[in-house]
Amino acid sequence: MSTLTLDSANNLEQKRKRRARRDRRMRFFRSLPSYIILGSFCLSAVFALVWALSVSLRTGQDFFTNGAWAFPNPVTTNNYEAAWQQMRVGQYFLNSVFYSSVGTLGAILIAAALSYVIARVKFKAGRFIYFGFLFLMMWPGWVSLVPSYMWMRTLGLLDTYWVLFFGYWLGSLPFNCFLLINFFETLPMELEEAALMDGANAWQIYWEVMFPLARPGVVTIGIFTFMNIWNDFFSPLIYLQDPAKYPLALGLQLLSVNATYGSDHPKLFAGMIIFIIPILIIYFLLKDRITEGLTMGAIKG
Amino acid sequence: MLKKTIFVLFMFIATIVLLAACATPPPQTVVVKETVPVLQTVQVPVEKTVVQQQIITATPVPKKLIEFGGFYPADSPWGKSIRLVGAQVEKDNPQCTFKYSEYPGTDGATAMDLRAKDGNPVDVAGGGIGNNGSDPALIEKQWAEGIVYDLSKDMKTPAYGQTSGTWMDTFNGAAKTMMVTAGGKIGTVPYMQTQIVMYYNTDLYTKYNLTPPKTWDDFMANCDTLKKNKVACVGGGGFNGYIGYWYDMILFRLMGNDKQFALYNRTDPTLKWTDAEPIKAAQMLTDMINKGYTTDGFVGGDFTAQQVAYFTGKAAHIFVGTWLMGEMKDSVPKEFHQAVTFFPTITGYEDKTPYEAAFGFLNAWQINNTGAKTKDTHSTDCAVTFVKAMTSKDNELVMSNGDNLDYITTVIGGQGKSAITGIGDLLDKMKLWFPAVQNVAATSPELQSKYWDNVTRLASGALTPETFGAQMQKDWDDVFSRLKK
Amino acid sequence: MLQKELRKLILIFVVPPILAWMILNIYPMVSAFYWAMTDYDGVTTSSQVFTGIENYRLLMNDTRWWDSMGNTFIIGAGLIVTILPISLLFAVLITNTVKGQGFFKTFVYLPSILPIVITALLWVFILDPTVGLLGGAVDGLGARDQLKELLGVNNLNFIGNPNLARWTVIFVSLWAAVGGYTIYFMAGLSRIPTELYDAAKMDGAQGWPMFWQITFPLLYPVVQTITLLLIINSLQNFAFIYVLSGGTPGSATQVMSTYIYRTAFTDHRFGYATALGTIMMMAVLVFTVTTRQLSRREVIQY
Lengths: 301, 485, 302
Prior knowledge:
Chain A contains 15 helices and no strands. Chain A has helices at residues 6-56, 60-66, 78-85, 89-120, 124-138, 145-154, 161-171, 173-185, 190-197, 202-213, 215-231, 234-239, 248-257, 259-262, 265-300. The B-C interface holds B 13, 16-17, 20-21, 24, 26-27, 232, 235, 238-240, 290, 292, 295-303, 305-306, 308-309, 312, 314-315, 445-446, 449-450, 452-453, 456-457, 460-462, 482, 485 and C 26-27, 30-31, 33-34, 39, 42-43, 45, 48, 64, 124-125, 128-132, 135, 154-157, 159-162, 165, 245-246, 248, 250-252, 262, 266-269.
């Protein structure tokens, strides 16, 4: 028979507490390296952005005289006005908004429609298209860079809004459809059967029943598409020639090599901050959705 | 299954390749829209009373149009100043009327060319940065097609508002040199030039007791003093063209203008990049860099940051264009003083080039002959008058004053206030002027890009002076062999 | 029934986008092989002469092309070798961190959402040896010469130095890309059931051996996919290098994509550039397929 006296019970309790404390300390020290490693990386990210912000609030004179590390003295918001007006950043901003919104809208409508049909409707070409998307995501696109430019020129699409829109709507299809097809496949068939029995036709089944259900997936790809278009630098570089049509990404790159404003770092940085503010806002508000989307993409891949 | 797919794909691709080979559409050129005319004058019939109480109306004088094809928007500072001159010309010459049409960019030049071929040319074209210097091929063709108006006779007439002297003599040496083409014809009128000059920080010069260098050895001695005091001698660079400017100028001093032009444009194939002078120039450039006289970012750094280095006193010299001050006007520290000078000559080669020599870019107007569709409504006389007014000393003074801090005139005495102290005098003294990079980009843009690529590799140490010469020769052989076809 | 009804959607939902896609993309993809055999300069119709394999002969002797190919693979390899372990490490660290996991996730991924143009410009100005943060710091501390000695260089211009430029590109690309791949790995890690870990702990396993025996093998498919993605992205890397070097990459950072762009749009040699594009495509495909074959392993079911 084992006897558990009050004393030994207390002792055991104390030992457990001590071990718990030691475990916690050990856990803390064991995770210290990870805090340091991860922390310094995160710090570098934050620091870079904060520095950019601080430079954008300085005058050119101050920046030239006091160097890169000094605090803004005096603090000024003139650079933002100058960037918006003289450097045409305002115009580029509006262009970016235009391209991103129309591009995203079109892309998600087309992608959702296409994905639904491929996921639900059994037709031979469906599998072909699905594998086609998989294949396309890995195809090195450079071989068709120059011919694509010439083809767009022949079609008269060069330096128009259409060339960008077609590019965005169709170019984002592989990734978007990939996600949405998997998403639709997880939805139960009964809903559609039920709708059919209620007398709905194909369009109504899709638009009123299935599409609303796909909202989470659609929102996710919408966010991704919007951010990708906002950040896109390459398509405008190749296909646009009229400076009035440039989006922010291209506009800023040109400003940085434009001797007039490139040398005025505070103004250039103001332009850069204007460029990334929308992205940062979207990111911080919707980051969970974004990481979710990436996660989904990774798992299915 | 897999095999079948591959086979199908292959047939598909093969079919399309065959189809593509048969049907390759030609490229479409871009057409630029015209803008609404900006200035119009209204016809007013004149009434005259005569003794017999008869009212006679004078027939309106048929006004001839000067149509100006402008690179800049009509309401930009450029556009506005040009339209002002147009209005003045209309006032002084009632038979002429003026219209500003926008033709921006390289597409603008193409569009104007198409109009000219169609018999409906603009009368005066130009205004872009180096627009004429950068496409001599186009101008050659336009001469051949009879589009360009020959100004050689008009140049002998007096300038605007003058009664004696010739228009030609109002221009400075650089403009005069570049105006005249083969056969003595004059097709373009330079109104503005951008010059690559040697800027130096006069405060640093005073502090370290230096004098502006006349020879390369003087310059190196100055650099040595500066280096001992932990100041970089040379800022700028960054952009590979700017490093190229150093090489151009050093080689110019060593070879002389004609030989350099012949080497760059292969008008004399016996000159090679492996000759003594190109290699020596490469050697001198790398010496300057290896001795630590340049800022760290001179090779491959961001060129805007390197310019900032000059203005923050971290470097004492910068060899770059007159556009510099226009760009930097808001940021230059208040207590910054500088001056400009010509590039030093090289001991032993003084006779090759005059000290007062430099290179740069010229912006010029071009007058077109009237075409089939415009010969009754437009007038080259009016156009010539207008261009004379544009390049009159008074107008040049207006253009180069005020906000246009980088406007450098081509007209003697026409330099207004400039942020570059002493630039006007420098230009008036100039004896020899050559186009930047000896205009090699006109022969082939590929030449310029390969040349600048090699200069950067030389400057970064990836090539030695000897391998640089060999590589340049190889590239030149390669490009020219393809050009001949 | 349902299928028949839904089939009607094919005509409106599937055919237009696929058709549009084919019209806009198939023709260029395929005509590339034709254009690669001409001497087209992009502007003048007269240069559209068929020259056969002349372009391919030229590129054999084009040292710049082979250098750029070498650079592409060097930089690509450098990226793969650094991004994979580091993002895996970050993923493991973040997954095992209880406190502040959300915080780390947010800020590690932050550099990845920034536009490439911004990241490149920011780092150019940070690393500038004369007026950037680097230059300012070094001058402020008076340590310029010491640092030069320490690194064995004669100037601190990392981007312009032929030996250090590639490292700089890899470093900055790494900084920008790590976040995304970390999230991918975290997704993969989260799919491994914790029961396995508990079982292993019961058997006395912990720390590194546990990682190698359990985590890594189970994570292998994810690693494969990510390597594939990484290869494709890093070999075709254009925007970054283009902006980092202000549009004119030096010889050490000239990669295939920037060289093709330059040949086409600066040197006006469309035919030749297309030929280069075909070679690039083949090189990337070969590399991708080889890597896939080499990394084939049994997929462990669990």
